[in-house]
Design brief:
Blueprint: E1 2-3, E2 46-51, E3 58-62, E4 65-69, E5 75-77, E6 84-92, E7 95-101, E8 114-117, E9 125-128, E10 137-141, E11 144-149, E12 152-156, E13 162-167, E14 173-176, E15 179-187, E16 190-194, E17 201-203, E18 212-215, E19 222-225, E20 230-234, E21 242-246, E22 253-257, E23 260-265, E24 268-272, E25 280-284
Length: 285
């Protein structure tokens, strides 16, 4: 059944993400001041996970900055910038896209729109939609960018001009790296696929309910995590899914490279080297 603009939110509360986030977003204020620059780094409210091919390190977009997570679990806040990073997406070596909100005392509108870094997150430039968009879900492939903000799916080929594909309620989105018109989203009816850049969608029958989805950068596999933490993998672009392992609790963010799968849960990041079959702590409070 093809649908357009009539998808329902997946069973995960009010989460919307790819850096999917199920946490509230307080306005900057007194509570934010406890997370001043120079403060100890903690992983709180992880909105997105992505690996930079330049250094092979995992990066977490969080409510209190962009954090590099070493293989040994060490946390380093990039540029010591306390800022809310939503929709973190790595699009090349040292090149990131994101959205979010400024930290206390930082200039800019409440919604940062689409921002870009070309130096591994040390500095950021606004590309478009400043003051308008708060992309909770963001992904890109071959120059095509998809973003989900305020209940609407937007698509851009240059990061500056956007086409509005209509209103829909989804929890997450992921674009096939090998076919940029092929978009996978999660709904309360299950995963849905678009082959025309998000204009129409087909619900995939007999698929599990997924909250988060991600393609590996080479496009050989897609991974999904259910609201309860069950991990699934697909080798046909999201049409069918095989259950792998379990991360033990509700997921907050998902990233994948090859057979390496990373999932943020409350107070921890767990990782798998076998395509999501087994997980071990990468970081835990």
């Amino acid at each position: 059944m093809a649908t357009a603009g009539a998808l329902s939110l997946a069973g995960c509360g009010t989460a919307e993400a790819g850096g999917t986030d199920s946490h509230p977003h307080p306005e900057a204020g007194a509570g934010e001041r406890t997370k001043a620059e120079g403060a100890a780094v903690e992983l709180e409210h992880v909105h997105g996970l992505a690996v930079d091919p330049a250094d092979g390190e995992l990066y977490a977009g969080t409510h209190y900055g962009l954090v590099r997570v070493s293989a040994g679990g060490q946390l380093i806040r990039v540029a010591d910038r306390v800022q809310d990073f939503m929709g973190l997406t790595v699009i090349g070596p040292g090149r990131y896209l994101a959205s979010g909100h400024p930290g206390t005392g930082q200039p800019g509108p409440a919604n940062l729109g689409l921002i870009e870094s070309t130096d591994a997150g040390r500095t950021w430039t606004t590309l478009s939609l400043a003051g308008d968009a708060d992309f909770h879900a963001l992904d890109a492939a071959q120059g095509v960018i998809y973003g989900y903000t305020d209940g609407r799916l937007l698509v851009s080929k240059d990061g500056r001009e956007w086409a509005d594909q209509g209103a829909m309620a989804i929890a997450d989105l992921a674009v096939d790296p090998t076919q940029p018109d092929r978009l996978l989203v999660t709904t309360e009816q299950g995963p849905a696929l678009s082959a025309d850049g998000g204009r129409t969608f087909d619900l995939e029958p007999d698929s599990p309910l997924l909250q988060l989805v991600a393609f590996s950068p080479e496009g050989a596999a897609a991974f999904g995590v259910s609201p309860g933490g069950e991990v699934y993998a697909s080798t046909d672009g999201g049409r069918t899914w095989d259950q792998r392992g379990n991360v033990g609790s509700a997921p907050a963010a998902l990233g994948a490279v090859g057979q390496n799968v990373y999932v943020a849960v409350e107070g921890a990041i767990v990782s798998s080297t076998d395509g999501g079959a087994t997980f071990a702590d990468m970081y835990r409070e």
